[in-house]
Specification:
The protein starts with 7 loop residues before the first helix and ends with a helix. The chain is elongated. The chain is built from eleven helices and five strands; from the N terminus they run ααααααβααβααβββα. The protein is mainly α and 264 residues long. It has one domain. 58% of the residues lie in helices and 6% in strands. Helix 2 runs antiparallel to helix 8, helix 7 packs antiparallel against helix 8 (147-170) and helix 9 packs antiparallel against helix 10.
């Protein structure tokens, strides 16, 4: 299924997929419809799906990085993206440090999948751009009746949606090395990296030195008990230890639905 050339009825009737990428797919479809029809309503719908998709993505990041998420924490973040951002940056979760750590370590193994790592400030920048079209934008004579307004608004919305869609369709999904699955040496390296006392290049050197030891340990563990599957908490995406996962760094994954949505 492609985002181009779909009618409004086809977009509305699209089967819902429980994944943030589904909203980005819908937003791309509405944006394409806006380009073809010059209808402002399609712009508003594109903005709605973009913002909802970003908020859903923030929730996915929170669940993946916070295995002990409580109902109280969930309710506090519900409908409040800024509270979600604060929680993701809290010492308990520290999403960006964990994402950076995973981003540095995974490429050290040639079998590691290509994952995506979001910067919170960028996501909230895009969230703000989408929000502009979800409020009163001015008198129709200065907005809907103005070709200049329409072209400018479409370009601005596309500047936020296009990079999100590009990353969503060119990577395997969202993934992290869960803290509670780290070997002691890896956890020690993460703690030093998170505290700022271990720099990126030094981290790479240390992990290259440790890799043979960790690989041998993981191999012994796999032979002594059945392989354990590391699955995303939302029920989508999995990683079999010893296959696409680096032997010394089990993954916690939420695979992308964007490829399935587009037929790739």
């Amino acid at each position: 299924m492609k985002t181009e050339g779909r009618s409004a009825d086809e977009i509305v009737a699209n089967a819902i997929v429980d994944h943030s990428s589904w909203h980005f797919f819908q937003a791309m479809s509405w944006l394409d419809l806006a380009k073809r029809t010059q209808r402002p309503a399609a712009l508003h719908y594109a903005a709605l799906d973009l913002r909802y998709g970003i908020e859903y993505l923030l929730f996915e990041l929170l669940v993946l990085t916070n295995r002990g998420l409580t109902e109280e924490e969930y309710q506090r973040c519900l409908g409040d993206p800024r509270a979600m951002k604060k929680t993701l940056r809290s010492a308990k979760v520290d999403y960006e440090k964990l994402a950076d750590f995973s981003r540095i370590l995974l490429p050290l193994d040639p079998q590691a999948p290509k994952l995506r790592y979001w910067r919170l400030d960028e996501l909230f920048k895009y969230w703000g751009i989408a929000s502009e079209l979800l409020h009163f934008v001015g008198a129709h004579s200065r907005t809907y009746a103005s070709e200049r307004w329409f072209v400018k608004s479409l370009a601005r919305l596309e500047s936020a949606l296009a990079p999100i869609w590009e990353v969503s369709t060119t990577t395997f999904g969202i993934g992290f090395i869960p803290r509670d699955a780290m070997e002691p040496e890896v956890l020690q390296a993460y703690q030093e990296f998170s505290a700022g006392t271990l720099k990126e290049e030094d981290l790479k050197i240390r992990m290259r030195i440790l890799h043979p030891l960790l690989k041998e340990r993981m191999s012994r563990t796999r032979h002594s008990k059945p392989a354990r599957r590391a699955t995303g908490p939302l029920g989508q995406g999995n990683c079999q230890s010893g296959s696409i996962c680096p032997p010394s760094v089990p993954l916690k994954l939420l695979s992308s639905e964007a490829g399935a949505l587009t037929g790739n």
